[in-house]
Amino acid sequence: MIGCQINTSHPNPHYFLFIYFVEGLNGWNILKNGGDKWVASEIRKPHADETIRTNFATSYEMCTKSQLIDLKKEGYSPSLMDHVQPDIKISDWYLAHVDCQSMYNIWVQLLNQKKEPVEIFSREGIYCRGGREKWDQITHVFHKYGPGVRYIRFTHGGKDLKWWKGHFGIHITGSCVEILP
Fold first, then answer.
1. Under a CB-based contact definition with an 8 Å cutoff, are residues 149 and 131 in contact?
2. Which of 29, 84, 93, 118 is 20 to 30 A away from residue 50, measured at CA?
């Protein structure tokens, strides 16, 4: 599995955690599949979380993919989302190829019933230089976002900046969405 696991042993019984980002491209909506396309593969560089063994790799043209999470379908009632408005934490890990600069993008939208944005987090054009071979993490917490949130759309992607054939673009793993008390 790529991403976080359901945490059933958390000491707080109101702690919710779920993730949709499983091994392979199953469940993802491929928005752009440029160059040599998305690929799911073994990680090149060990990750701090030793359970993570695979990642997604991009190519020399833009690759983006997304998932739509239906909160009601996952057991989060409209009442809970409107009145409690639990914090929603997103995180993603990314790594540039050792020999090639890359660009990474992430967009996460909290959506209403009509799938219109209530709140948006985005970081576009994060430049990742080659030679580091270090996993970087991006996180964001949605807090007091207002009533009406029914879906979460998680979108990310990138490409290499040298136009090399193959999968020398950004590598992504550990994508996670957490619903917190």
1. no
2. 29
Please report where in the chains the tokens 């560089």 appear, as a residue. Answer: 45
What value does the CA radius of gyration of the chain take, rounded to a whole number of Å?
17
Q: pLDDT tens-digit profile of 86-108?
A: 999 999 999 988 888 899 999 99
Residue 163, token pair as written in the block: 């136009």
Give me the sign of the Cα torsion angle 16, 87, 5, 115.
Answer: positive
Gap between the Cα atoms of 31 and 50, Å rounded: 30
Count of CB atoms situated within 10 Å of the CB of 78? 14
The domain made up of 16-179 has a fold known as Jelly Rolls (2.60.120)
Tokens of 130: 């080659």
Q: Are 91 and 175 in contact (CB under 8 A)?
A: yes
Give dist(CA 60, CA 47) in Å, integer.
Answer: 24
The two tokens of residue 49 are 């979380």
Query: How far, rounded to the nearest angstrom, does the alpha carbon of residue 143 sit from its chain's CA centroid?
Result: 18
Q: Report, as ranges of residue numbers, the positions in the chain whose pLDDT lies below 70.
A: 1-24
Q: Residue 165 has which token pair?
A: 């054939």
Q: What is the DSSP string of 101-130?
A: -EEEEEEEEEE-TTS-EEEEEEEEEEEE-T
Name the percent of the chain in helix, strand, coil, to the closest 5. Answer: 5, 45, 50
